[in-house]
Design a protein that fits this description.
With about 350 residues, this protein is of the alpha/beta class. It has a single domain, classed as Divalent-metal-dependent TIM barrel enzymes (TIM Barrel), CATH 3.20.20. Helix content is about 40%, strand content about 15%. The structure holds manganese (II) ion.
Length: about 350
C-alpha cells in the first residue's frame, strides 16, 4: 500500500508539507486544488501544486475533489460543457503523474455532520459527529449555515460557498429526480469520462455517500455493496472504481466493511482507500473515533488484513482525525490525530505482512 495524506495546498492548509513528509512511511498526498465544481483545472495550476509537493519530497498520484457539477448529476442539457471540462481536467492531471481521481456523485450535499467539534467526554478531544434527530430539527438551510459557522473560517471540501448559494433552487430541482434517474445520469457521465481515463492511465474512484443513507429526501445511490455493484456495472472498466471509505460506508452498521473490501478488491475495483474508525451511538447517530479499533466500532485489523489480501498496492490515507492537543485547524483535517492514524495503520500493516508473508516491504 502507499500511505498518503490529504493536503489542501499552501494557500489554505496550515500544515506545512515538511511536517507531512516527517510522518513515518508517508509516501505522498491525496492532493486537492481549490476549484469550483465544473471548472477546468488548468495545466499551470496543476504544475504549480505538483512542483511544490515534489520539492518537499512527496508524490501526488491521487487527486481528490474533482467535483462533479450539479448539472451533470441532474442530467441538464448544460452537462455536456461541464463534462468537456472534466475530460480536459483528466487529461491535464494525467500529464502530471496522477493515477487516481477521487470524486463523488452525491446530490447537493457532500459529507454531512450535525456537529463538527463534539467533545468526546472520555478524553476532552473533539471530533465530527452526526445525529439524525438534530438534522430533523434543523433542515437543509440551517445545517448549511451552522456548518459554515463551525468551520473556523476554513472552507470545507464539498461545502464551497458558491456551490451552496443556489441551495433552495437546487433542492427543488431534485424533487423530480429519483435514484434511477440519478443512476442514468451517472452512466452518461461515466460513458463519457471512462474511455478517456483508460487512454491516459487514470482510474476514477467514487467516494461513498456520507453518511451512508439518503438525507433530506434527496436520492443517493452509493452507500452499500449493492449500490456499488450497480455502479461498477454502469460502465464496466478497470478504470471505473470506488474509493472505499471505511468511515463513510461504516456509518451504517449493516455494511460489513472487511467483506465489502474483499468483494470489490477481488474484482480489482478499489482505486483508493480512506481508513478511519466510527463509534456508533444509536440509530443514525455516530461520532468519529480515533483509528484504534477498540476506541470505535470498526475492526481495523480485519480492514487492513482484507486490504493486504485483495488490494495490497492500493493508495491509503488516514481519514478524518479528532482534534487533539489543542490543535486548531480544519475540522477532521488536523495534523496530529491523522499522523497518529497513519502510524497505527502502518503498525497494523507491518504485523499483517510479517505474519502472512514473512516480510514487510
Ligand atoms: Mn472518506
Amino acid at each position: 500500500m502507499k500511505m498518503t495524506f490529504r493536503w489542501y495546498g499552501s494557500k489554505i492548509d496550515p500544515i506545512p508539507l515538511k511536517y507531512i513528509r516527517q510522518i513515518p512511511g508517508m509516501s505522498g498526498l491525496m492532493g486537492f486544488l481549490d476549484k469550483a465544481a465544473g471548472d477546468n483545472w488548468e495545466e499551470e495550476e496543476i504544475k504549480a501544486y505538483m512542483d511544490e509537493v515534489h520539492a518537499a519530497g512527496l508524490e501526488c498520484e491521487v487527486i481528490e475533489s474533482v467535483n462533479v457539477h450539479e448539472d451533470i448529476k441532474m442530467g441538464l442539457p448544460s452537462r455536456d460543457a461541464y463534462i468537456a471540462n472534466y475530460i480536459s481536467t483528466i487529461r491535464n492531471l494525467a500529464k502530471y503523474g496522477v493515477k487516481v481521481i477521487v470524486y463523488n456523485f452525491m446530490p447537493v450535499f457532500d459529507w454531512l455532520r450535525t456537529d463538527l467539534a463534539r467533545i468526546i467526554p472520555e478524553d476532552g478531544s473533539n471530533s465530527l459527529y452526526f445525529d439524525e434527530k438534530d438534522l430533523g430539527e434543523m433542515g437543509p438551510l440551517e445545517i448549511v449555515r451552522k456548518t459554515a459557522e463551525d468551520s473556523h473560517g476554513f472552507t470545507l471540501p464539498g461545502w464551497e460557498p458558491e456551490r451552496l448559494a443556489l441551495l433552495e433552487t437546487t433542492l427543488k430541482q431534485y424533487e423530480n429526480i429519483g435514484p434511477d434517474d440519478l443512476r442514468r445520469n451517472f452512466k452518461y457521465f461515466l460513458d463519457a469520462v471512462i474511455p478517456v481515463c483508460e487512454e491516459v492511465g487514470i482510474r476514477m474512484a467514487c467516494h461513498p455517500d456520507d453518511p451512508a443513507w439518503p438525507i433530506f429526501g434527496l436520492p443517493r445511490i452509493c452507500h452499500s455493496q449493492d449500490d456499488f455493484d450497480k455502479m461498477v456495472q454502469l460502465h464496466d472498466s478497470p478504470a471505473n472504481t470506488l474509493c472505499l471509505c471505511t468511515g463513510s460506508l461504516g456509518s451504517n452498521p449493516e455494511n460489513d466493511i472487511p467483506s465489502i473490501i474483499r468483494h470489490f478488491g477481488e474484482m480489482d475495483r478499489i482505486g483508493a482507500m480512506h481508513v478511519r474508525n466510527i463509534k456508533f451511538l444509536g440509530y443514525h447517530h455516530f461520532r468519529e473515533a480515533s483509528h484504534l479499533s477498540r476506541e470505535g466500532d470498526l475492526d481495523m485489523f480485519a480492514i487492513m488484513e482484507a486490504i493486504h489480501d485483495v488490494c495490497p498496492d492500493t493508495y491509503i490515507r488516514p481519514d478524518h482525525g479528532r482534534m487533539i492537543w489543542d490543535e486548531k485547524g480544519r475540522p477532521g483535517y488536523g495534523l496530529y490525530d491523522r499522523a497518529l492514524g497513519a502510524a497505527y495503520i502502518n503498525g497494523l500493516w507491518e504485523s499483517i505482512c510479517r505474519i502472512k508473508d514473512g516480510k514487510c516491504e
